[in-house]
Write a structure and sequence with these properties.
Layout (H helix, E strand, L loop, with lengths): L15 H13 L17 E2 L2 E3 L5 E4 L14 H8 L30 H10 L8 E5 L2 H15 L5 E5 L8 H4 L18 E4 L17 E2 L2 E2 H6 L11 E6 L13 H13 L4 E4 L23 E4 L6 E5 L20 H16 L2 H19 L4 E7 L2 E6 L2 H13 L2 E2 L1 E3 L3 E4 L7 H18 L7
Parallel strand pairs: 3-15, 5-6, 5-9, 9-10, 10-11
Antiparallel strand pairs: 1-2, 2-3, 4-12, 7-8, 11-12, 13-14, 14-17, 16-17
Bound molecules: pyridoxal-5'-phosphate.
The site of pyridoxal-5'-phosphate has 15 residues, from helix 4.
Amino acid sequence: MDRDSAEPTVDAYPGPNAQKWVEFHGTNAAPSEYSHEFVWDITREADGPFVTDVDGNVLLDFTCHIGAAPLGYNNEKLTDKLREFDLVEPMKIAGQDMYFGAGPTPEESAVPGSSHLMDKLTDLSRQYDMDTVFLSNSGAEAMENAMKITHDYRAPAKYGVAFEGSFHGRTFGTLSITKSKEVYTRHYPQVSGIETVPFCADRGCEADSCDCGFFAGETSQLRRMLAPEGGRINPDEIAFLTLEPIQGVGGYRFPSDAFMQEVAAVTDEYDIPLVVDEIQAGIGRTGEIWASDHYPIEPDVIASAKALRVGATISRSDIFPSEKNRVGSTFGGGDLLGSMMGTFTLEAIEEHGLLENATRRGEQAKELLRDDAPDYVDDVRGKGLMLAVEFDTAERRNAVVKAALERGLLTLGCGKKTIRLLPPLDSSTREIELGIGLFCEAIDAVGPSAKAA
Ligand SMILES: Cc1ncc(COP(=O)(O)O)c(C=O)c1O
């Protein structure tokens, strides 16, 4: 398959083979979060955003597996580098009890491992003075460790602050700071001391005209909660305030500068560690390595995963506990293949100018979407290739996801009535035209009646 000429072709969706695979999978797999009956055939052709399923349908994937495959499928920018190495076994090792290297010195090594990945990550976070990394397996673990290290740093703090609409993971700890859908948290016990504050989802919000609930009169809800007189929480007892710079699962909600300035001012004034969850929005998706780089905030801890292929909690050495064994994980810092892929992804972003490409292609996509948007599209928004189209109703949103799939375009819902689009970071003009063209066709087919054609 050649991505320069590939076209989506779909017979029937889901096809007969997909139905068999879905049934087989469901025999033993716990019911989980499957958005589509899309079954990628890992033995068939795929290139960039184009992928073949088990029925031979060719789809254009504008989800990048929720950003976890930031360069799409079989991307030469990664595969060429991976092919240079005879991979070793064990590739996934118990990296907590010993180190590994390749050759006499780290500088001469052609094989990047976890130490090289950490070196790159701190380089990319220098603007926040970050010099220390703890690697783990997943986003939730990256956030768990962010909660742990800030609790140590601020001991004996007993509070944490999270925002309404947030999603930070599905472990018991991270569910306590996840404030989006009730299905994630129902009946599960909570870590005590988590306070919730409104998230500003209005990009144009100003303090004096705010109707998103964050600003209230002369002050913000956050500041009011911490006020020396009349506040209900002592800021000295807060371990962290955690924020997705752009809310993902909650609906691709982009905050206003006024909101971000207030978050920065309050955390700065009271020395509260600001933990940013960059698991979905980070590593180039928005046209910057970190979504935080777009906003007037100074994070103290960054949690990353997905596009990075491993989990990472990044911060300053003074925030990390110095005591041995305070953080750890069997397969955490020792995932050789994951670390290599994360390093190559970061190298590809740098070598191929993919931040700039994401910004340009994102502008192209938004322009095309806005040109074609009918009345029942409430909003088209995005930074880089973290794009969202919000509809007037959930019913119409769901019908458009289905109609897009029938035309060969994979998209994902989020929030209540929004579709998220995450094309690969190296998408071409043609691929964006093709994908947005199919998306607009799907919107037209659904039409005002909200029925998929
Ligand atoms: C913003 C955000 N934080 C945390 C997570 C949890 O990451 P993981 O599923 O790797 O545990 C996700 C996953 O979707 C996410 O989008």
